[in-house]
Amino acid sequence: MAKPSVEPVGAAEVEFDHECDVLVVGFGAAGAAAAYEAAAAGADVLVLERSSGPGGTSAQSGGELYLGGGTRVQKACGFDDTPDDMFAFLTAALGPHADAEKLRLYCDGSVEHFEWFRARGVPFKESLFDAPGWMPYTDDGLMWLGENAWPYNEIARPAPRGHRPETPMFAGGILMDKLIAAAAEAGAVAHQDTSATNLVVDGAGRVAGVVARRFADRVVYRARRGVVLTSGGFVDNEEMLADHAPVLLGHDKVSDGTSDGSGIRMATALGAATRRMASVEIALTANPAVICRGMLVDGLGRRFINEDVYPGLFSHRAVQHQPGPYWAIIDEAGHDEIDEADMWGVRPKHAAETVAELEGSLGLPPGSLEATVETYNRFAERGEDPYFHKDPRWLRPLKGPFAAIDPADGFFGAGRHGAGTGAGGFTLGGLDTTVDGEVRNNSGEPIPGLYAAGRTASGIHGEGYISGTSLGDGTFFGRRAGRAAASGNREAGG
Amino acid sequence: MAKPSVEPVGAAEVEFDHECDVLVVGFGAAGAAAAYEAAAAGADVLVLERSSGPGGTSAQSGGELYLGGGTRVQKACGFDDTPDDMFAFLTAALGPHADAEKLRLYCDGSVEHFEWFRARGVPFKESLFDAPGWMPYTDDGLMWLGENAWPYNEIARPAPRGHRPETPMFAGGILMDKLIAAAAEAGAVAHQDTSATNLVVDGAGRVAGVVARRFADRVVYRARRGVVLTSGGFVDNEEMLADHAPVLLGHDKVSDGTSDGSGIRMATALGAATRRMASVEIALTANPAVICRGMLVDGLGRRFINEDVYPGLFSHRAVQHQPGPYWAIIDEAGHDEIDEADMWGVRPKHAAETVAELEGSLGLPPGSLEATVETYNRFAERGEDPYFHKDPRWLRPLKGPFAAIDPADGFFGAGRHGAGTGAGGFTLGGLDTTVDGEVRNNSGEPIPGLYAAGRTASGIHGEGYISGTSLGDGTFFGRRAGRAAASGNREAGG
């Protein structure tokens, strides 16, 4: 099948239209961080953005930043965190097989990184949102992301590390406004509506720029010191999903629509290595406030996890490992406890006086949900959950009337929209990079002049994910890549 | 970390020690098939093999070949199979996301491919081994591989398609003896103790040979028409496993020890694309004869599949998706039914009069296995398995005394050996190839002069696996790659 060529182009075959020291491809969070640092280090920086404005997927995100080790916000909220506890938690939660080298740097540098955001003008309110949820409906600056749930509460001293700009719900816009302004102020110049299509390579095998497309025009950029690829992942590229992360096929895409994998492909065309291309983030539109007080069951009416974990974890476990459909089960007493704002517009649809009735109306195997609820209640009576270790504060025998909610119905009365599966996500795998964002070839050596960060690269993640770790590692290693590119040796004759 | 370089070498920078038309790298099943066809088409063929003798992992395998559509053996055993039924079964069983284009050719060409093996002297006895199992302990030439288990029995008309050379247990040796002899007879010449390390590329970007190592010497080969990479997968390369298929880390390796991914890496270093690098085969040393009559439960005492499926499927479901440890549960009546030879040397270790006792000694959550057995028995009484649809012929209420077997104890009294997890496997992902074995670059175009087959390539598999599909597609597409390479245009000046 003919695809647009991503093959590298020889420097001798092109005429350059623009020149800079550091060329950043993609103006999301990682690109803004790289552009800021490269410009602050004195480099002449151009940023290419394929959309008509900057921000990318980051600007549409929740804006969570997974930070800790004793930030100002954590201290103000009364938590005494350490880089070691943060490292232990993330090693488990982003694993198995999280990247220990990157993670160590990320945790040790986390307080500094938090202060960097503050210095760029990102506002963080010094208050904790202390409830299970995907995103606070308040403007609190700190939230739990599963650190206090089993087994993580036994692996590291729990402290909340979800930091977020001061606004209710989606905070990615505020974050990106500040980072884009900071990059511009430092001197980085953006070229919008400009899609990089191919890397330009000189005779010595060094990346010397990119070929790009702006509407109908071909525009060629020379980068004297380095090219930093920060163009996102590949969730919008169906063929790449089928080849590398098929679990996301058919689900919604957490993306601004431009996560087409082009950064990854331009680099692999040049012989760059990849890592963890099958790793993904998946979110299921199940409401944590509901399932913490009730349960989440699979298509066989079985629980499969402690429902008080980080929501991305129950989502991942469901979509990757359990037979669907999934059902959030709640009783009247539990439902009545939940703040209206915390329901995210979800209305129980299937109501029944008994579990047997509910089970029948959901089409579950006969006796399956009854057995699940009977077992749950028997142990909940004693404040125990020997199967999954849900925290005792959520344990209470469930009593009729009951209701079930189909996550595929979505939040805020959306009904079945998009893919209609109730699940969506993005890709975590990408280019194999050093801690300074240098892109490695298949022999483990950096490709001269080529850097990557954000979801174009494989970051701190193994097979797991926690909110705020993608913006977190994208900006952290984006900054490092920007600095490394700015200090890169000039090419011969540059 | 410094790794041996797999970067391509320019043809102008080397002096060739040997020349041929078609150079095949790796003398397992795919390599033998490619070498035979290329030589039979009149090409001058050299085969490089890194070990001191040919055969590779294929020679140590069970020797199953997944073939059907109406072979001579199927007919003799009374089965009326069609390519369409075979296609429907494999689309489901190798999926989700099996390769439809390759699979269609594979199924339509299956009878011819079977006859090709016969013509090469591979003996197939025209009799059926009609019992659940990993491998027959008889010399029967045909076996079921889950075609008659739910849901596959509703997807395609069931017919057994596991074809195997006439010998009890491991038949890969016989298979490879015949294929190696056939390749030699056709004129292919093998260079042993010779490891290919880098591809040689000419100025036009065409693959023109390989650099290899033979003990301390560097030996350079010129291939006038094409290089066919058939050097296996990457299960023996821990770093590649961590990067691409971490689920196999820590488990046993189904390999002759040389599946180091070098063929894949040499090609990706040149900009070749990969597919499905996370797909794997996994086998759990649980005995199908036992669990069909009893049950297989996970670390929470729950069943998770109809135990009469193809054994690789219950293995895959367990290791990829269920919390361990896993237990094979059987009652005395079931145990007494099993032929001694069919026990594969397995001795029940944990015995108990009641399920409650057994559950306690296995350390399962209180009441968990009891609930599982109670539910199983209640429905088995009526010949039903509404959860997992095990065939009624295996359904019978289980009655004490009971026993449990830990798959990690292995077969044939091996005890805990190797990795000690009871699971092992190999990789299914690899280079992105056309149906003629041409290796594609990241733009979807064939790289001139470069071919691949067997586990160096991504074949017919999506995320699933069935015994005999790896030797099957390796030989089928190996033959096509050999023919395509033999007919390749000679390089300029060749």
What's the topology here?
2 copies of one chain form a homodimer.
Chain A: E1 9-10, E2 18-25, H1 29-40, E3 45-48, H2 56-59, E4 65-66, H3 72-76, H4 83-93, H5 100-108, H6 110-119, E5 128-129, E6 142-143, H7 152-155, E7 162-163, H8 172-186, E8 189-191, E9 194-201, E10 207-214, E11 217-229, H9 238-244, E12 252-253, H10 262-268, E13 274-275, E14 280-284, H11 288-293, E15 295-297, H12 311-321, E16 327-331, H13 332-337, E17 350-352, H14 355-362, H15 368-380, E18 402-405, E19 423-427, E20 430-431, E21 438-440, E22 446-452, H16 469-486
Parallel strand pairs in A: 1-9, 2-3, 2-11, 3-8, 5-6, 11-22, 12-19
Antiparallel strand pairs in A: 4-7, 6-7, 9-10, 10-11, 13-20, 14-19, 15-16, 16-18, 17-18, 21-22
Helix pairs in contact in A: 1-8, 1-16, 4-5, 14-15
Task: Write a brief caption for the model.
Chains A, B: Its cofactor is FAD. Chain A is of the alpha/beta class and 494 residues long.
Q: What is the count of DSSP helices of chain A, taking H or I runs of 4+ residues?
A: 16
Shape of chain A: elongated
Low-confidence stretches of chain A: 490-494
**Structure class of chain A:** alpha/beta
